[in-house]
Amino acid sequence: MSGRKEFRTFPIKLFVYHLRQDDPKKCTALRLGRFGLARIVYHIRGLPPGALMLDPFSEIAFSPADRVIIERNGLVAIDCSWIHANEFFKLRVRGQSRCLPYLVAANPVNYGKIGKLTTVEAFAAALYIIGYREHSEKILSLFKWGKVFLKLNAELLDLYSKATNSSEVVKIQRQFIK
Length: 178
Prior knowledge:
It is built from eight helices and five strands; from the N terminus they run αβαββαβαβαααα.
């Protein structure tokens, strides 16, 4: 399938605002773009209005309740270096944002670190939580370590996906951390 056709047929529109800060050979977002599973944009105005943005500094936790917004308007991840992430997200880009709950990274650069997810791990977690588990597995299948992410976080992802709202996700996260 051509990249454009895959993007049109994928049930959730994934968008990446790419800031060109990391090694393009290791960039998970660019690989998603090459396989037609996400649209890569280089200007903020290229993002769809109303899409939900994954923001590690948001005060609202991502939950299954976000499914309606995402199905209608899409899901956005920002691809930038973790070194500069705080600077970018301080700008508060337009639209709604959500923070993914407690999850462990499986990527080779940040393996075992809490919350230091790659773009594909963030998308996969979000898709899993809103009930698109097969699509989560599909995008992770592009990476040797993709299945490891799901194994490391299986219990949490299942619990988060059964929550009804952000408050319940936060409660689950707190219980797990204890």
